[in-house]
Specification:
This protein is of the alpha/beta class. It is built from 14 helices and five strands.
Length: 296
Amino acid sequence: MARRARVVYDRKACRLTLMGMSGVGKTRLARRLPRETWFHFSGDYRIGTKYLTEPMVDLLKRRAFLDAELGPLLRADTIHLGVNVSFDDLSALSYFLGRLGDERKGGLGADAFFKRQDSFRQAEIKAMRDVPAFIERAQEIYGYPCFINDAGGSLCEIMGNPDGQEDVSTIISEHTVLVYIKAGPQVQEALLERALNAPKPMYFGKDFLTRSIDQFCQEHTIRGVQDMDPNLFYRWVFPRLIDYRNKLYDDLAQRYGITITTDQLAKIENYHDPRDVENAFLNMIEEAIAQVSYAD
């Protein structure tokens, strides 16, 4: 497929969007770059601290009100509930999204799950539309020459024009270089184990999720979501989600950006000086850009 967008890059004033599955090392890489010159924008952090704070707190309140002791205290404003989201701890978002399946096993019913999924989708779209404003703030207020958008693993699910406003992919590609960090087979296996042991916020595209539910129920001979074991479904669907997203990210990188691999990134793990990390990483970026071909 021929490219339709040119990659605009300036080493002295880099503006990058890291994209790929959660766990491939986007946040780790962003945190290892020189902090005095790089502004680190986290999509998931923006979602959790700006766009989903109230829904997450409302969920906690609804559950607290069911408690005979906590309910009266909350109504009397004796206690207050809140969430703490950080770049390194997104567990509050994961708790809000929950897992689909049998409610008796800790799962969420289809209606509640899809509603929360849609809330996350809308929040992620808003967060990515904030990127241009944050690029401007980073440079004009804080004096950072370089900007890195640490996008969530579901970025590929929200590209397009879902609500009649400007295309998210257009906004991101016009202001940043899209850098797809592609996981190799061994890393993909590690991603599954990590996702099960320390789950991150997981958004599923509605069409993909609907097909997956139907297929899972057929394979396991069950009636529907109400009979699904939440953990079993999550373990079953995650490898399929990786394969599905790999194709979406390959297409995005080919149309708008570049690709580097987790094997390439592993080569800079032994660097300790942020300047060395930066230099090696930007060399990778420039080599990848040099290999880009465009339509005539």
